[in-house]
Amino acid sequence: MMLMRGLYFAAFLLFAISVSAQQATTNTSGSGQAGNIILDWSLGELTLVHTVQNGNLVFTQGLHQGVLIDLNASGSVIAHGELLVYPNPARRTLNLGIGFFETGTLSLRLFSPTGALLRQSEYPITAFGNRHIDLTPYANGVYMLHAVFTPTNGQPRKNTYKILHLQ
Predict the structure, then answer these.
(1) Residue spans of beta strands (DSSP E) within 6-140
(2) What is the pLDDT of residue 154?
(3) Peptide bond into 151 cis (omega under 30)
(4) Cis peptide before 89 (omega within 30 of 0)
(5) What is the percentage of the chain residues whose pLDDT exceeds 70?
(6) What is the pLDDT of residue 75?
(7) How many Å apart are CA 33 and CA 15, to the nearest integer?
(8) Entry pTM
(9) What parts of the chain have a pLDDT lower than 50?
(10) pLDDT for 50-62, tens place per residue?
(11) Domains of the chain, residue spans
(12) Which of 28, 63, 122, 154 could disulfide-pair with 48, CB 3.0 to 4.6 Å?
C-alpha cells in the first residue's frame, strides 16, 4: 500500500514538473521604429519566431501569438488566418481581416438565407488589410459568404463562411 502511494506521488510529481516546464514568461518588452526598420524585443522568453516574406508582405509568428498559421497549407481551401471573418454573429458590419502572403484577387459573394446572390465584390490584394461589409440593408438571418482568393501565380483557394446577422 505504501509502495502504491509512493508511485502515485512520483507520477504526480513528474506530471507537475512537465506541465510547469512548458510555461514562458516575459519580464519586459517593447517596440520601436526608425525609418523602415521596426524592432520588437522582449527579455525572459524563448526565441521561437518564424518570418516569411514575399515582396512587400512580411509575416512573423512566434511564441506569444495565440494562433499559429500553417504556412504550407495545401489544397484549394483558404487557410486559417488568411481571411478572418468577424464578428459572428454580426449586427451592422462584417469585418474581413486579409492576411494573404501572395498578391492576387479576392472575390466575395454574399448569399441570402434563401440562396439569392445579394452582393458581389472583387478586391486586388497587394498587402495585409481590412475590408468591411455593411449588413444593415439585410434582415436577420443566416447568410453565406463565399470567398475565392486567386493568387497572381497559383491556383485559386476557396472557403464559405456561415454568417449570423442579428440587428
Answers:
(1) 28-34, 37-43, 49-54, 57-62, 83-86, 93-98, 104-111, 117-125, 129-134
(2) 86
(3) no
(4) yes
(5) 55
(6) 60
(7) 43
(8) 0.57
(9) 13-24, 65-73
(10) 666 666 566 666 5
(11) 83-165
(12) 63
Our CA angle for 48, 51, 57, nearest 5°, is 155
The amino acid occupying position 47 is T
Q: How does strand 117-125 pair with strand 129-134?
A: unpaired
pLDDT at 80: 81
Cβ atoms of residues 42 and 28 within 8 Å: yes
DSSP letter for 90, please. Answer: B
Cα separation, 81 vs 83, in Å, equals 5
CA distances for 145 relative to 44, 54, 107, 167, angstroms: 43, 28, 10, 18
Q: Which three cell numbers stand for residue 24?
A: 514562458
pLDDT of residue 76: 87
Q: Which three cell numbers stand for residue 135?
A: 449588413
Q: Which residues pair with 96 in a beta bridge?
A: 85, 131
What digits encode the pLDDT tens for the residues 144-164?
999 999 999 889 999 999 999
Which cell is 141 given? 438571418
Question: 58: phi > 0 → left, psi -120 to 50 → alpha, else beta; which?
Answer: beta
Domain covering 83-165: architecture: Sandwich (2.60)
Question: Sign (positive/negative) of CA torsion 80, 61, 44, 30?
Answer: negative
Q: Grid coordinates standing for 64?
A: 506569444
Distances from the Cα of 158 to the Cα of 28, 65, 83, angstroms: 41, 25, 10
